[in-house]
Amino acid sequence: MVLRTTTSTTLWWLLLPSLLLISSLLLFKKGRRSIISRSSPSSTSSPSPSPTLPLGSLGWPLVGETIEFVSCAYSDRPETFINKRRALYGKVFKSHIFGNPTIVSTDAEVIKFILQSDAKSFVPSYPKSLTELMGKSSILLINGGLQRRIHGLVGAFFKSPHLKAQITRDMEKLVRESMAKWREDEAIFIQDETKNVSIAFQVLVKALISLDPGEEMELLKKQFQEFILGLMSLPIKLPGTQLYRSLRAKKEMVKLVRKLIRSKREEMNGTTTSIVSKDVIDVLLNDSSNQLTDELIADNMIDMMIPGEDSVPVLMTLAINYLSDCPAALKQLTEENLKLKSLKAQLGEPLFWSDYLSSLPFTQTVITETLRMGNIIIGVMRKAMKDVEIKGHLIPKGWSVLAYLRSVHLDDNHYDHPYHFNPWRWQIQDKDVSNNNFTPFGGGQRLCPGVDLARLEASIFLHHFVTQFRYTLIFYLFIYLTSLKDTQNYP
Ligand code: HEM
Predict the structure, then answer these.
(1) In sequence order, what are the beta bridge partners of 401?
(2) Structure confidence at residue 20 (pLDDT)
(3) Is pLDDT of 9 > 60?
(4) Atom 9 of ligand 1, residue of closest alpha carbon
(5) Is the separation of the CB atoms in 65 and 95 below 8 Å?
(6) Which residues are part of a known binding site?
(7) Confidence bin at 267 (pLDDT 50/70/90)
(8) Residue 362 has what pLDDT?
C-alpha cells in the first residue's frame, strides 16, 4: 500500500496545489537569458565548453506543464512526471511549472550544489499566498546573515541535551495518555491518531513557546488548524475566503506569542544577566545582535509549528504503514524495543533520549528507510539569482529550480529495489546517511534544524506503539489493535 504523502500539508514546501497555479500564472514572466555572472562548482583554469540550457519542453503557453505535473503529484506515483522526462532528456531537464520556467534536477550532485549554494546564487521561492501567510521575516523566506543567525540559534537549541530530555518527557506523557484511550480489538485510523491528537504539535509548541496543555493550547490548536488550511487555498484575500480566515487566525496566534514575548522582556529587564533559555523565544530574545524584532520572533514561532502538525505525524504514520507490509521488520523492531524495555524495567529506570537515538539501532534504520521511501518533503524549490553553471548545464537567472529529492531516494542506481521497504540496507556499512543520495532533511545552510527532534519523536512513538500493541492493517491506514498481555510499565 502506498500512502499519498502529497495529500498532506507538507506540500507547502513544494507548492503543489493546483489552485496555487492561478497566482503563479498571474505572475508569469518569460525567462530571460542575459548572462550577467556565472558560478561553477568546479572552477578550473582550462576553458570548458559553454554551458547549455538543459533539454526539455516548456509545454503550453502560460500553463506550461503544470497540469500534468500536478495530476501526477496527486497520484500514487508522483515521480511519473519526472521519470518520463528524465528518460527523454536526462537527469536535469527544463520544464515550465507554476508559472515559471523551471530547471528540474534529479541528479544528486546538482541537488547537492543547489542546496549548498548561498543566497547570491539561489533563494527559496514560494508563491505570494504562502509568503503572505508565513510573513516576510519567516526563516523560510529570509536570506543571508539573518537566516544564518536564526538557523544557528534554533539549530543549537534543538540539539541541546536539555531540550531533548524535556521533549522525551513531554512526548512520553502525551503518547501514554493518548494510547491509554485506545481499546483492544478496536480499529483506529492511524493518520488521525498521529495528527489530530497533536502529540508532536503540543511537544513542539512547548519547545517553541513553553505553552502547556490547557485552554490557551486548545485555542492555539484551533487557530492553527484554520491557519494551515490557507497553505493549500486559493490565493484570494477577501472576507469569506480561506486565505482571509487563515490570515486572521495567524494574527490571533501572533497576538498570543507577542504577549508571551512582552512578559519575557519585562522579566529580562529586571535582570542584568541573560536568562537561561527554556524555549526558542528565550533563545531568540537572548541574542545580542538587536536584529531580531518581536514581529520576526512571533512570525517564526508560528511557522516553526508546521512540522509538528504535519511532517512528524506523517513520518510516524508512514513507518506504521511500511512496517505492516514487512512483518520481518516489524518483528525485529518489536523484539528490539521489548528487550530494551525489559532491561530498563530491571534497572528500574526510564528510557532516556539517548536510549531512543542510540540504543535502538534497528528502530533508527526503520526511521531512515521510512524517510527514504516516504519522501515527506518531496523536493525543494529555489529561484536563481544569477546565471549558474553546473555540470555543463545552464540555470538562467530568474528561473525556478526544483531539486526533486524523491527521485534520488528512489533511484535504482543508488538503492537496490528502491520501492522495497528494506531497513536492513542501512546496516551495510557503506550506506552512510550523510551521503549525497540521502537528503530527506535538505542540506547546506537550510538543512532542517529539526532533524534530531523528528527522529526522537518518531522513535518514542514507535517504541510505545510496538511494545503495547499488536496490530493488523485492515484497510488504508486503518489498523486493528490487540494489546500485548505482558506489558511492563516504566518506573
Ligand atoms: C520528518 C520531519 C521533517 C522533515 C522531513 C523535514 C524536512 C525539511 C527540509 C527538506 C527542509 C529544507 C527546506 C529547504 O531547503 O528549503 C527543512 C527546513 C526546516 N525545517 Fe524541517 N523537517 C522535518 C521536521 C522539522 C521539525 C520537527 C522542525 C522543528 C521546528 C523543523 C524545522 C525546520 C525549519 C525551521 C526549517 C527551515 C530552515 C532554514 O531555512 O534555515 N523541521 N525541513
Answers:
(1) 103, 382
(2) 29
(3) no
(4) 441
(5) yes
(6) 448
(7) confident
(8) 97
ipTM for the predicted complex comes to 0.99
248: nearest Cα among 220, 227, 222? 227
| Residue 389 confidence (pLDDT) above 80 | yes
Report the mean per-residue pLDDT for the chain. 83
Which of 380, 378, 398 shows the shortest CA–CA distance to 388? 398
Buried b (16+ CB within 10 A) or exposed e, 320-347: bbbbbebeebbebbbebbbebbeebeee
Strand order in the sheet with 100-105: 92-97, 100-105, 400-403, 380-384, 122-124
Residue 182 in grid coordinates: 485506545
- For residue 75, the CA-to-ligand 1 centroid distance in Å is 24
Distance 383 CA to ligand 1 centre (A): 19
The pLDDT value recorded for residue 434 is 64
Binding site listing for heme = 448
CB atoms within 10 A of CB 246: 25
Any residues with CB less than 8 A from the CB of 345 and at least 6 apart, and which?
488, 489, 490, 491
Q: 51-55, 188-192, 280-284, 459-463 — which is least confidently predicted?
A: 188-192
pTM: 0.86
Q: Distance (Å, rounded) from C-alpha 360 to C-alpha 369?
A: 15
Rounded to 5 degrees, φ, ψ at 471 are: -150, 160
Residue closest to 398 by CA, chosen among 24, 102, 86 = 102
All 3 cell numbers of residue 484? 500485548
Residues 34-65 have pLDDT tens digits of 222 333 444 344 556 788 999 999 999 888 99
- Residues comprising the chain, all counted: 491
The binding-site residues of ligand 1, defined as CB within 6 angstroms of any ligand atom, are 124, 139-140, 147, 151, 204, 304, 307, 311-312, 315, 376-377, 380, 440-442, 446, 448-450, 453-454
State the DSSP string of 195-264. HTT-HHHHHHHHHHH-PPSSHHHHHHHHHHHHHHHGGGS-S--STTSHHHHHHHHHHHHHHHHHHHHHHH
